[in-house]
Design brief:
Layout lengths: L3 H39 L1 E13 L5 E3 L4 E10 H8 L7 E5 L6 E2 L4 E5 L1 H11 L6 E3 L3 E8 L1 E8 L2 E5 L3 E3 L4 E3 L2 E6 L1 H4 L5 E2 L3 E6 L3 E6 L8 E2 L3 E6 L1 E12 L7 E5 L2 E9 L12 E4 L1 H5 L5 E7 L5 E6 L2 E7 L1
Parallel strand pairs: 1-4, 9-14, 10-15
Antiparallel strand pairs: 1-3, 2-8, 3-7, 5-6, 6-8, 9-13, 11-19, 12-18, 13-17, 16-18, 19-21, 20-25, 21-24, 22-23, 23-25
Length: 324
């Protein structure tokens, strides 16, 4: 009989018992640690902290001249909420105050104030605690707000409207309102001559339409109480037509031109076709060349109805004969 076998069995049983003891110890250690952790988190702690303030819904004719605003407070909260607070990065510890929802008041020339309780309410909502758990260091929040320069400028439609074949935009789109009052620092306002809309893009259009289009306020560099305009775009079916426009000069000298008329190829709305007559157009003659007795005179289309689109004119030079 091998004498080492009994000793091996004893050693195996001892090691097995030790492993069970260690496992039991670790389980109890873990449970006690978790229990201790929950007990600590259930206790109440007082934490001093600072939250920043961002302002929103500032009146269009004013701007916040003290944008970096912060308030100090004490939080009397349990460990669970303290842990939640600690998880908020310092740069993210801020609340947004909408001035159209806060009763602020004027203190002096450009200093305003409102109750710090409004800040406490937002922080309480963010942390999921009661407002009574927050003690603000100051009863009021003070901030500076200055009056901006103002200016009335026209609105320009920024558009890319593609119509179906034979259809065209009729006339100039109308905007409501056609002009707006903008606000901003003087150095910015002085450079603004007009305000464009954001791009109005349409494809395969075959009928008139009305669209609300936001204004492009230079990425927030200027403000306006009006944020969008209504654009009314008329679209009509068009057709081509040729109009023979007589070439004449209003002078005491009688001149006969060759050819006697300019042919104007244009696009007109079908609804206007019957009303288009040569008298709606006029041709300009280079009178300086006429006085210099040059053999050919430059001619150009001088005026035409706004609702007509000019495609081509001919000729651009004419011969002439002075009639005695």
């Amino acid at each position: 009989m091998d004498m080492t076998e009994p000793f091996a069995n004893i050693k195996y049983k001892v090691e097995r018992k030790d492993k069970r003891s260690i496992g039991t110890f670790l389980v109890f250690l873990m449970l006690s640690t978790v229990l201790w952790f929950f007990v600590k988190l259930s206790e109440t702690y007082t934490t001093q902290t600072t939250f920043g303030i961002q302002f929103a819904e500032v009146p269009a004719d004013k701007w916040i001249s003290s944008p970096e605003q912060s308030v100090k407070m004490s939080l009397k909260i349990d460990g669970f909420h303290t842990l939640r607070y600690k998880m908020i990065r310092e740069q993210n510890r801020f609340v947004t105050i909408a001035l159209n929802q806060v009763p602020y008041r004027l203190e002096n020339a450009n200093t305003y104030s409102f109750s710090s309780q409004y800040v406490a309410e937002q922080i309480a909502e963010r942390l999921g605690i009661s407002v009574s758990d927050i003690s603000m260091n100051e009863a009021m929040v003070y901030f500076n707000m200055d009056l901006l320069q103002s200016k009335v400028v026209p609105v320009v439609l920024n558009s890319d409207i593609k119509t179906q074949q034979q259809y065209e935009v009729y006339g100039i789109p109308t905007l409501e309102p056609a002009s707006v009052t903008i606000f901003g620092p003087k150095e910015v306002i002085d450079t603004v001559k007009s305000v464009k809309t954001e791009l109005l893009s349409k494809l395969n259009v075959n009928q008139s339409f009305t669209e609300t289009v936001p204004l492009n306020l230079f990425n927030g560099k200027i403000r306006s109480s009006i944020k969008e305009v209504k654009a009314e775009v008329q679209v009509e079916k068009f057709t081509e037509m040729d109009v023979a426009v007589p070439i004449r000069v209003n002078d005491s000298v009688k001149v006969r031109f060759f050819p006697e008329a300019m042919t104007v190829k244009c696009l007109v709305a079908i609804k206007d076709y019957a009303s288009i007559v040569p008298e709606n157009f006029s041709v300009a003659v280079d009178m300086k060349q006429l006085k210099e007795m040059q053999p050919l005179l430059d001619v150009s289309l001088e005026s035409w109805p706004k609702y007509v689109q000019i495609l081509k004119t001919r000729p651009d030079k004419v011969e002439y004969l002075i009639v005695q």
